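hey
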């Protein structure tokens, strides 16, 4: 993704997204934000799901 195509807020959000710990892909989706602030992430490349 070309970072110059993003607004400041979108760039900040993109930079805060983790990479998949299993395959290293940046193509991840936040499935849920829990009450304690923990986010559940899904990797669109390998299907791995994790929380952090």
């Amino acid at each position: 993704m070309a970072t110059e195509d993003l607004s400041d807020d979108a760039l900040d959000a993109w930079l805060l997204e983790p990479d998949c710990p299993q395959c290293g892909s940046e193509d991840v989706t936040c499935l849920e934000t829990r009450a304690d602030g923990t986010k559940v992430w899904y990797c669109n490349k390998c299907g791995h799901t994790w929380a952090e």
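The radius of gyration is 12 Å. Residues 8-16 form the longest helix (9 residues).
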